[in-house]
Amino acid sequence: MFPKVVQVIPMENYSVYVYFEDGKIVCYDMTQMIEKEVFRPLKDITVFKEACTVMNDTLAWDIGGNRDNTNCLDIDPDTLYELPFVNEQIA
């Protein structure tokens, strides 16, 4: 099975709630990843939240704002799916 992300909700603390088509919800913590050179643009919380989207059926950031699937920052959906299930904390 190929896990497919259908929705993402970025939070103020550099985490993202990731929703899969089978109903699984995980919370991905980006605090360590944003220290890596490739993800450094995401240190700006406004960019982190506004560019966060679903592309290529996974969590991604559309930094250029042009919805180009070949030019985005994304996280492997298998990596996300292996995270433990969480209960949604959004009110």
List keywords for this structure.
3-stranded antiparallel β-sheet, NE0471 N-terminal domain-like, alpha+beta, 91 residues, 6 strands
Describe the model.
- This protein has helices at 45-50, 77-81; strands at 5-10, 15-20, 25-29, 52-55, 58-61, 73-74.
- A 3-stranded antiparallel β-sheet has the order 1-2-3. A 3-stranded antiparallel β-sheet has the order 4-5-6.
- It is globular and about 30 Å long.
- By secondary structure, the chain is α+β, with helices and mostly antiparallel strands.
- It has a single domain, classed as 2-Layer Sandwich (NE0471 N-terminal domain-like), CATH 3.30.2020.
- Helix content is 12%, strand content 30%.
List the helices and strands and how they pair.
Layout: E1 5-10, E2 15-20, E3 25-29, H1 45-50, E4 52-55, E5 58-61, E6 73-74, H2 77-81
| Distance from first to last alpha carbon | 31 Å
In terms of quaternary structure, the protein is single chain
Main pleated sheet: 3 strands, antiparallel
Shape: globular
Strand neighbour order, sheet with most strands: 1-2-3
Rg: 12 Å
Low-confidence stretches: none
Number of helices: 2
Helix content: 10-25%
Give the class from helix and strand content and strand pairing.
alpha+beta
- One letter per element, helices H and strands E, the order comes to EEEHEEEH
Number of domains: 1
> If you consult CATH, what is the topology?
NE0471 N-terminal domain-like
